[in-house]
Design goal:
Order of helices and strands: EHHEEHEEEEHEHHHHEHEH
Number of helices: 10
Oligomer: single chain
Number of strands: 10
Radius of gyration: 21 Å
CATH class of the largest domain: Alpha Beta
Distance between the termini: 27 Å
């Protein structure tokens, strides 16, 4: 487990001026934003304190008229799994993206389509993206910990600054290292993932619920129960499944394909944290109740 300090700013004193709906900042929405950047338990405690202080029963009924910003420092813990990220996009040339990333210290190369793992970020073609065959996919090297997240944040910012486009043809795929997992742990990941299907459906883009590129993984079949090796589990999995075990054969990873195309760093980081929590719970089933919240899926 890796521990690191994360400083976030959030409102610690709300000046309640009645239930006026003239100012459109909702207490619930504001704390949803805070949850993306700080330890959920710490923010939830602050949320509860404010709600109790002003006697607010239903957060949708109250609006903030004035907020005084304070700073708090919390310690966030994330599982120390190696991971990879793939973001599909279009609307800007891959050369432009690669140049800007290199300017910001993120070594990036433009390559032909392929599945080789690179030591740098790479941008390749993706014929499934867009409508005119001008889609791209940016693929990370193997990432880990805070350094990996920092690189991802820079990539997301560059895509935003260049006004890259994403639509219903785009997806964001996360690979998590599975080489240290045994067969039963790998199976548990699929079962736990499916147990959160309702929340996941509310978190990911609507287009991903019917996409042929992220079909539901079937974990209740007799075959799934009886399969006897990691390799046979991977061989029998359709590569365009929400939980793609087939990636284990090529990369030693499990690929999660259900997030829509996005360069919203907060959303991707939240998704990665959620997935890592599932992988961690597969090793210790008592941690299922500690799986990270998918902010925006409530």
């Amino acid at each position: 487990m890796e521990r690191y300090e994360l400083t976030s700013k959030f409102n610690s004193n709300f000046k309640h001026e009645g239930k006026s709906k003239q100012v459109k900042i909702c207490v619930r929405d504001y704390f949803t934003q805070c949850l993306r950047n700080a330890a959920p338990k710490a923010i939830q405690a602050e949320y509860n304190r404010v709600m109790e202080q002003y006697g607010i029963v239903e957060p949708r009924d109250i609006f903030v008229c004035k907020m005084i910003t304070a700073t708090t420092t919390t310690v966030v813990t994330i599982p120390d799994f190696k991971f990879g990220v793939e973001i599909e996009f279009y609307g800007v040339t891959r050369e432009e993206v690669a140049y800007e990333l290199c300017q910001k210290g993120i070594q990036t190369v433009v390559v032909r389509y392929g599945h080789d793992v690179s030591s740098t970020w790479k941008i390749t073609t993706d014929s499934s993206v867009g409508t005119r065959g001008e889609g791209w996919e940016i693929v990370s090297p193997i990432l880990q910990g805070t350094d990996g997240l920092k690189q991802l944040k820079v990539v997301c910012q560059v895509l935003k600054d260049l006004e890259a486009k994403v639509d219903s043809t785009c997806g964001t795929h996360i690979h998590i290292d599975a080489r240290t997992l045994n067969l039963e742990e790998m199976k548990s990941i699929g079962r736990i993932y499916n147990s959160f299907s309702d929340k996941i459906s509310r978190f990911v883009g609507a287009s991903r619920l019917t996409s042929k590129y992220c079909l539901p993984i079937e974990t209740n079949s007799t075959f799934f129960d009886l399969v006897s090796t990691r390799e046979s589990l991977a061989s029998a999995t359709y590569r365009y499944s929400t939980v793609n075990y087939a990636a284990y054969l090529r990369h030693g990873t499990i690929e999660f394909r259900q997030l829509e195309g996005t360069y919203d760093y907060n959303k991707i980081e939240n998704w990665i944290s959620f997935l890592m929590s599932i992988v961690e719970a597969s090793k210790d089933f008592s941690k299922v109740n500690q799986i990270k919240t998918l902010n925006g899926a409530a």
